Amino acid sequence: MRETFLKETMDKFGDMVLRVATSVCGNKGDAEDVFSDVFFALWRLNKQYSSDEHLKAWLIRVSVNKAKNVRKSAYNRHKAVLHENIFAEDNSFENSLDVQNALEKLKPRDRAVVYLHYYEGYSYQEISKIIGLKEGSVRSVAKRAREEMKELLI
Fold first, then answer.
1. What is the pTM of this model?
2. How far is 110 from 71, CA to CA, in rounded Å?
């Protein structure tokens, strides 16, 4: 029963978890580790969720937190990172090389806010609950990230 739930959840939300983790981690390898950690945590938790939206929010929150932990680790602070395509899907906005390069230059928190708002379609209020910042802070982060990206793209 738990395995069936986990398999269905991975099929439904796995790509999203991987994209969120990649947007925060900045590379696919660390994101895949986060992906595994998130679904292992879900399996261990063995909890029923009232709706898919609640489950999705939980998965995003745990993905962001685990990805932040990976980025903060001593190993990751001292390793060189090769340039990677952080968005694997064929979408003209995300795969635009200029936009992608600008996204990669943002701070992880800023990149996560931009990703959740523009790619996943969350409101600032929802992002504030997911990331754990006040809504005003999320708006400020989004504004600063937009301005930074605008400067990078001009």
1. 0.61
2. 14
Give the C-alpha distances (Å, rounded to integers) separating 119 from 46, 80, 81, 122.
29, 27, 24, 8
Render pLDDT for 78-129 as a digit per residue (tens, 0 to 9). Answer: 454 444 444 445 444 444 667 777 777 888 888 888 888 888 888 899 888 8
- The distance from CA 113 to its chain's CA centroid, rounded to whole angstroms, is 8
Looking up tokens 């930074």, which residue turns up? 148
Judge contact between 37 and 43, C-beta under 8 A: no
In angstroms, what CA-CA distances link 89 with 23, 33, 99, 137?
A: 13, 19, 14, 29
Which of 74, 76, 90 is CA-nearest to residue 26?
A: 76
3-state secondary structure labels for all residues of the chain: CHHHHHHHHHHHHHHHHHHHHHHHHCCHHHHHHHHHHHHHHHHHHCCCCCCHHHHHHHHHHHHHHHHHHHHHCHHHHCCCCCCCCCCCCCCHHHHCHHHHHHHHHCCHHHHHHHHHHHHCCCCHHHHHHHHCCCHHHHHHHHHHHHHHHHHHHC
Cβ pair 115, 94 in contact under 8 A:
no
Nearest to 131 by CA among 147, 149, 117, 148: 117
The token pair at 84 is: 């990677």
